[in-house]
Amino acid sequence: MSKFSLKDAYIDKARRDFLKKAGAGVATTVLGAGITLMAYPDPAAARKPDEPVDASKRWGLLIDANKCKEDCNACVTACSQENGWKLDGDPRHDSQWIRKLTIKNPQGGFTQSFPVMCQHCTNPPCTDVCPTGASFKRADGIVLVDKHICIGCRYCMMACPYKARSFIHQPLEDQKPHAPRGKGTVEACTLCVHRVDRGDQPACVERCSKDGNGALIFGDLNDPNSEISKQIATYPTRQIRADLGVDPGVRYKNL
User: Fold this and answer.
1) Mean pLDDT value across the chain
2) φ and ψ of 35, to 5 deg
């Protein structure tokens, strides 16, 4: 089990006990000047709070760029609705948990559109530079931010080669209990960890299969019998900036 594994609302029992002793029951926790973290209830989850994350799994995504259409933003909308961050009308905006990018071949003019989010790396640079341990990787490969110990230094944002993290500048309203957020903290795609822990697909994958073009596959990269592993074994795939050696858990097909 990872040293910083999350339990319930991503706080382990020891830290929860400490926060209770320090003054539980308050609506907000002041982390520093201008940095306030909203309190939130524990989410319901199929995985028991004290059950360790399964280290034999490595969750990942496979994105088929040929199936991803430039005018389709189903995955972006689903992520916004599921996790409570607001769309600003531009699905390519860097501050979103997931954004659509369009690349163009300067010679032939051929274009491709595909989503980019936290790549959930095996060797995530964001965790290396975090001074508090707020940025961490679970034993099953999901990279997360513990908002209760994030001090908003934004080192992780600078370290991420994928521009996948954003900083919350404004007070938040209508937060989702399963997706805690906080002013003055950094956030990014969580692979909908609350859904994964109860045995469901991430919201982007589910919505893409219903309202999109079926461009996203989610599964266990360590399981040779999973659909994602079969696809990777059968067809050529690539990782964005594989040369960096961070081994992203997000792979792209036909890119």
Assistant:
1) 83
2) -120, 110
